[in-house]
TrEMBL record:
Keywords annotated in UniProt: Coiled coil, Membrane, Transmembrane, Transmembrane helix
Transmembrane segments: 21-43
Coiled-coil segments: 57-91
UniProt keyword Metal-binding, yes or no: no
Alphabetical list of InterPro entries matching this protein: Extracell_DNA_Util/SecSys_Comp, PilN
A single BP term in Gene Ontology: type IV pilus-dependent motility
Keyword Membrane: yes
Protein's name in the database: PilN domain-containing protein
Source domain of life: Bacteria
């Protein structure tokens, strides 16, 4: 004989499937939340670790920048000292030269002529003076031209001047300093 089940088994089956679905859905949501927390925790840990490394590097960069600034300051002071030393050495080297130049200026100065003003800029001497006559100025120019210590004498101006009732000539000239070879200055 055939058995007929009249109980609402389909309704129970639907209810069982619905309950299983809700349990699985809850488990998936909880699992997703746990995974999200783990991932977020890992990212936060990586970010804080990178920030710590950045702070460490920034601290060392500041220390190195201070050291670089000190090195630049020391190099600048060193260059200033080297410049001072070179100036002192050049002045020490020129000391005998200027004495010889003044000595040669006196040797080339003829009688009856004197300088009223002398300027030196680098290797160029500009002079002003008064002479008893134009012949004395010509004599000075010849002596400057033949001097081993002076080059390129250039007479810029000659004027008649009245000095204490005497007729005289005022003049302006310039010439270059040229140190002779060591055997010529004896």
């Amino acid at each position: 004989m055939a058995t007929i089940n009249l109980l609402p088994w389909r309704e129970e089956r639907r209810q069982q499937i619905k309950t299983e679905f809700l349990v699985i859905l809850g488990a998936v949501v909880v699992l997703g939340a746990v995974i999200a927390l783990i991932v977020m925790s890992a990212y936060n840990s990586a970010i804080s670790s990178q920030e710590a490394r950045n702070a460490y590097i920034q601290q060392h960069i500041e220390v190195i920048n201070r050291e670089v600034a000190e090195i630049k300051d020391l190099e600048q002071r060193r260059q200033q000292l080297l410049d001072r030393m070179s100036i002192i050495q050049s002045l020490q080297g020129e000391r005998p030269l200027i004495v010889r130049v003044f000595d040669e200026m006196v040797r080339t100065l003829p009688d009856g002529l004197f300088y009223t003003r002398i300027d030196r800029s680098d290797k160029r001497i500009n002079a002003e003076g008064v002479a008893e006559s134009n012949n004395r100025i010509s004599s000075l120019m010849r002596k400057l031209d033949t001097s081993p210590w002076f080059d390129n004498p250039n007479l810029a101006d000659v004027k008649a001047a009245d000095i204490l009732g005497d007729q005289a000539s005022s003049f302006k000239l310039s010439y270059s300093i040229s140190a002779p070879a060591p055997d010529e200055d004896k």
